[in-house]
Amino acid sequence: MRGAFKLGNVAGIGIYIHWTFAILIIFIIFSNYQSGSNTQQIAWAVLFVLSIFVTVFLHELGHALAAKRYNIKTKDITMLPIGGLARLESIPEKPFEELVVAIAGPAVNIALALFTGLFITLPNTEVLVAELSNGVNAHNFFLNFLVVNVWLALFNLIPAFPMDGGRVLRALLAMKFERHIATNIAARIGQLLAIGFIFLGFYGNPMLIFIGFFIFLGAQAEAQMVQTKSMLTGYTVKNALIQQYQTIEATEPVSTAVHLLLNSQYKTFLVTQNSYPVGTLNRDDIIRALSQKGDAEPVAFVMDTNLVYIDAHLPLEEAYQQMQQQQANFVLVKENDHFVGIVDNENILEFILVKSALAQKR
Ligand SMILES: [Zn+2]
Questions:
Q1: What dotted CATH number matches 237-361?
Q2: CA of 282 to the centre of ligand 1 (A)
């Protein structure tokens, strides 16, 4: 992720922190200062935010270590001001494994809350509310820490995507139904909940409206992704292969690419040198080149040199996933070590549209 600094490695997983985290700390110092807090109070507030940060990190590590049990690697964990993000290489598709991986995060929070509970005595509700509205200090630090962990566990267990609870629900449903059906049911339940949150938000806490929208969109995205994947099942890359594409020589100037872009239906070009693929050039690359270097620049200096090759016999589902992960919307296809054509995102989407139209007709 851009703008993230590496903090170190834990269990072979790179741990990163995003620079915007510094803004959060500055904001907390500033807003505490504004409201007349003294240095000690500010220090406690900052310490508390850091402790939440560690908590969120442990939550993500919980997911990552659970995934590791099933031989799923985690590329990295990035800490953002809004939370943590563990990028797993894949999501386990066996229901029980998905259940364990999804629940491992909230389980960390529950464990932390229980552990903290051993060392403090819980006050009654009235005192609790009074303490929590006081701001963090030496006296109520661990009480606040416990409450945050309970809250994080509950929030993440809301049974809706993109929360962990949505995955838990899907995993449970997938023990009985096919995965894409289970996803659909879980997504619908999540959206119903989201509408409920938005509705409640109008009568009470406006924050719920925000959470409701967040969940609504997350549910939709997850349902769509699984739907897409299930549409691709049973096909290989060869089924979506494009043998007609536009090439451009690496020595040609950008102006040639502009001409091609304006006069053909192609949006991405394969850059070749002595008829051998050396890079790709899409509309964005061309526009960037025009504004930064002018149209006389050779294509070779502005092309994307990151060529991704996939095998023609690879299941289309897997190819699609790889393209998403590598953020490549244009990949080269090889069959028996020969370059045979390309596959692009647009074409896969068309492929899905055709399949879904046919499925509806049946
Ligand atoms: Zn989680």
A1: 3.10.580.10
A2: 36
